[in-house]
Give the backbone structure.
Amino acid sequence: MEKKVERASDAQIIAAARAIAGAEYVISLTGAGLSVESGIPPFRGPGGLWTKYGEPPMNGYQIFLENPKKAWEDRIRRQNDELWGPLKVAQPNPGHRALADLEAMGVLRFLITQNVDDLHRQSGQNGLAEIHGNWRLVRCIDCGARFRAEDIRLDTLPPPCPKCEGLIKSDTVAFGEPIPRDVLGHCIEHAALADLVIVAGTSATVYPAAGFALEVKQRGGVLVEANLYESEITAICDFSLRGPTGEILPRLVAAISDIRRARYS
Ligand SMILES: [Zn+2]
């Protein structure tokens, strides 16, 4: 039997919207739950790719470095598997668009995502750190430059960096690979300024992403959670909004708009 999904009440949405509208510097942390509604399978949990096929090796980065040519051959071979197939056709859903709207309204200053699916970019989010990379990009591990994967010639594997001849790998961060320094720097900078974090579609247990939310909370900031189910951080959240993020986030944006309209009229 399917578990009945709880829905946040209007009163809960309005209370969280008031906190967001009154905050100085709002950031958001998003994860797989946000993109499930766009047809992207999660890695963990029921129906997750890793649950079905086992976790990838924990030393994936080491394996890449030992034999980059083979890693590239593997990458080319799996272009249509269960993860890549959905990634190619996925479109942003109302949850992604709500966060882009919040940015356009001047409410959301920065977004840290654990998702590699490119959907925040596609919905027009500008202040964005893709902490685990972006599947459409490749990155030079020597100079840090990023390129669209289709712009890189594959006649020699591994392909050399067009800028520095260095080693190119997928931008998605492998197990054992350090988070790229530029991305990490942006996260640290914005988390240090934040007084409220909207945690959407993630249980915020994967580090380092989770650490940014916890850091804000420890400094006396506010955590607003939007998630389908109760999660590991629900207990420390000031506002916990239950339901699909594609529904909760647009309701939140509508409530914030109402509050701001009332304030300025
Ligand atoms: Zn390079």
Remarks:
- The chain has a mean pLDDT of 92.
- Strands lie at 26-30, 108-113, 128-130, 137-140, 146-148, 168-170, 196-200, 222-227, 239-242.
- The CA atoms of residues 140 and 168 lie 4 Å apart.
- Residues 140, 142-143, 145, 161, 163-164, 166 surround zinc ion (CB under 6 Å).
